[in-house]
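Q: Structure for this?
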Amino acid sequence: MKADTAAQVWPALDGFRIELPSWGFANTGTRFGKYLQPAAALTIEEKLSDAAEVHRVTGICPSVAVHVAWDFPNGASDAARVSRCAARFGVRIGAINPNLFEDQDYKFGSFGNPDQRVRAKALAHCMESIEIARACGSRDLSLWFADGSNYPGTQNIRQRKRWFEENLRAVHERLAGEERMLIEYKPFEPAFYHTDIADWGMALNFARAAGSKAKVLVDTGHHYASQNIEQIVAWLLDEGMLGGFHFNDRRYADDDLTLGSIDPYQVFRIFHEIRLFEWQAGRPADIAYMIDQSHNLKGKIEAMIQTAEIAQQLFAKAALVDLEKLCVAQAKCDLIGAESCLQDAFATDVRPVIAEWRSSRQLPENPRDAFRESGYLERVTKERGARTATGASSYV
Ligand code: RM4
Ligand code: MN
Ligand code: MN
């Protein structure tokens, strides 16, 4: 490996960490059913144990995002135990995701529900989520809403927007110090006519209305086909409003496919925009990189290792873009010169330099091989197999 490649890539690798989703280790499926895996985790302890395994072989996944209803069945009183358990496994609790869906009360929405009682219940759940975040020492409250409607004319869109603003502001008021709230958007599903936070503009608007600790969360799967996600990223960076990512890939609609499995160049372009921003601003962007994938068919732990590896590779490739050369080419409108800066970096095989970086950090050169050789999967398959066949509730 050329010394200058290593000089560019190693610092980027040292600074790159990506958070795992607890729900990615549980049995999940589609609305048409699920295929159970005998090794799937059923409890938060098992999810943390699996996540720790991903971190052990990759070295870049030290934190785990959690969903309150699935991982803290007794709410805030579970927090100390869960947090200690994470520490025992060598990971920590990351973003706290309130569950503002599934419960029968949320049939017509949570923050946007016409029933004041339900809006208050949703708000109280967010307040408890902040308590959990504090008890676990985690900074980010990550808000995704299933709210919307299925038929034209059935809900007052503007009224719901006002209700959202009200509750989001109330959540924001409860935040202290470094704590943040991240607002995620999604164009459709489960609502199929209108979604209350359907795109980045709406999320940005809500974040601004809520207060300075509110930022936008970009889930790469939550865009219409062919949308220019890196432009959205560039705008949010410029506005100081990009809080984090949920990484996954999609072909048709939100389906949590493995990051980069369909369009790795897009992920590369997103990372490039971030790096260009950081280089020009002279400071790191404060962004939470998170994976939001839940694999139904692939082995769950292995799929997470694969995802972390791909994220790392695409991040390393973006670190190879010659930014000085790019800026000169852009200023001269040297189109092919500028475009080639991206293409040359993207075409570079960074796997050897990453393998060297891993060895130097006492990490296995090939994380997936190391996982297969560890015998972990066989062990948990045996331990968990018998129960998994019976416990099949959605996402838990
Ligand atoms: C949504 C969204 C959220 C995730 C839920 C379960 O599509 O991506 O981030 O927490 O699914
Ligand atoms: Mn998401
Ligand atoms: Mn999603």
